[in-house]
Backbone:
């Protein structure tokens, strides 16, 4: 079984990488892009019995830094 | 006096730190590997050195903060043992929850490697008693993720409690309120991005970092 975990910066936290990507997109001649935020996708292969609580615990203990990031768990 | 410098895979300022501590304070200084779960007994100082522990995978300092030795460091910090984290060490201390906030990618995206001016904000702490409040000193930085972030309430609290040890004299990496180093609430844990251990004698271009260690030994002794 596969679970996807999306880690994103909280609203209000500046994202220098997103900004740089935004500049690069504009540099390629694309217009109309208003904002870019960069995050991280973590795919976890696991046994079906792994609980949502354990996945959440992995996120808060390691995968996301709760000072600056949020996470979303997407189970296939 | 006894000191330990923690080594992680990817630490690269561990020996510089050990030399600085040994030469300036005369402490019996040992290098402790991150897999250890017990620290040497009777430590008067623990240093978490700079480098790129675990290749900065996931987030700078994230993996190192969860390594076995850090449980022992957290326990020692709780007992009041002084803990100094420099650069990657600062990142590890925030990831381990010993210090507030987080260190994000530099606002300018680029790695910054140069000597910067710092203002000593608090000269009352055990780490900064070798300086005068408001004094301007010069210490090198070398980091990609030194952009200190904390929410406004936390920043206000840090300011109010005198827990900002050093501030950049001018913007370096986008750090909130130009913060370069912060103390924990008990004052026995300091995290800073600049490298005092790289500025301890004239041949390195200056010795402003030396007084951090000199002040520390006076406080500990």
Residues:
């Amino acid at each position: 079984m596969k679970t996807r975990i999306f880690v994103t910066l909280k609203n209000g936290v500046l994202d220098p990488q997103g900004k740089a990507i935004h500049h690069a997109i504009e540099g390629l001649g694309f217009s109309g892009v208003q904002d870019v935020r960069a995050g991280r996708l973590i795919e976890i292969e696991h046994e079906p019995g792994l609980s949502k609580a354990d996945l959440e615990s992995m996120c808060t203990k390691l995968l996301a830094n709760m000072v600056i990031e949020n996470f979303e768990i997407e189970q296939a | 006096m006894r000191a330990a410098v923690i080594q992680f895979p990817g630490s690269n300022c561990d020996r510089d730190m050990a030399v600085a501590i040994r030469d300036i304070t005369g402490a019996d200084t040992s290098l402790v590997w991150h897999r250890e779960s017990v620290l040497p007994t009777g430590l008067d100082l623990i240093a978490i050195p700079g480098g790129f522990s675990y290749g900065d995978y996931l987030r700078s300092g994230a993996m190192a903060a969860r390594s076995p030795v850090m449980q022992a460091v957290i326990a020692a910090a709780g007992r009041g043992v002084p803990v100094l984290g420099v650069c990657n060490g600062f990142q590890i201390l925030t990831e381990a929850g010993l210090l507030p906030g987080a260190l994000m990618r530099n606002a300018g995206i680029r790695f910054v490697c140069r000597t910067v001016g710092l203002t000593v904000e608090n000269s009352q702490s055990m780490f900064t008693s070798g300086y005068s409040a408001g004094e301007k000193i010069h210490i090198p930085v070398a980091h990609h993720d030194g952009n200190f972030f904390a929410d406004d309430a936390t920043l206000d609290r840090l300011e109010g409690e005198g827990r900002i040890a050093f501030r950049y004299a001018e913007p370096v990496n986008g750090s909130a309120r130009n913060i370069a180093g912060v103390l924990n609430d008990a004052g026995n844990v300091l995290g800073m991005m600049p490298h005092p251990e790289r500025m301890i004698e004239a041949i390195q271009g200056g010795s402003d970092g030396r007084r951090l260690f000199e002040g520390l030994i006076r406080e500990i002794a």
Q: What stands out?
A: The mean pLDDT of chain A is 95. Chain A touches chain B through eleven residues (CB under 8 Å). The CA atoms of residues 13 and 68 of chain A lie 7 Å apart. The first strand of chain A starts at residue 2 and ends at 9.
